Amino acid sequence: MTRGQLAKRTGVSMATLRYYEDSGILPAPHRSANGYRVYTDDYLVKVKFIKGAQTLGYSLKEIQETLELLSNEHMEKETLKALVRERIADIEKHIGHLKEMQQHLATLLHTPEEEIDSYIQSFRVSRKEP
Description:
The protein is elongated, with a radius of gyration of 24 Å. By secondary structure, the protein is mainly α. The protein has a two-stranded antiparallel sheet. Strand 1 (30-31) and strand 2 (37-38) form a beta hairpin. It is built from 6 helices and 2 strands.
């Protein structure tokens, strides 16, 4: 399939596909005799994987590293499961930080008005006229 066809089938723009190739996230496709890029069905799987991983919060660098690991002939199921466990732990840690932030902000809502006024005033710079 062509880049345009791959874009339509995956819902990713042609520019994004080009970026993935240029940055090494996707391997360069084979070219036909006339020089056109020819994408195989495995590109569908890879692009869908990239999109799915992005929705889970993975960075493109992390996705690229994971794709490289997955393409390794010696990749085993347990290695993949370990990567998933690590990501779950990262997410749980992030959730903990977000809950702490939420609690801190909720506490600020109960701050007395005069303290809020004083706090706001501390950020104001008095401008002296020359």
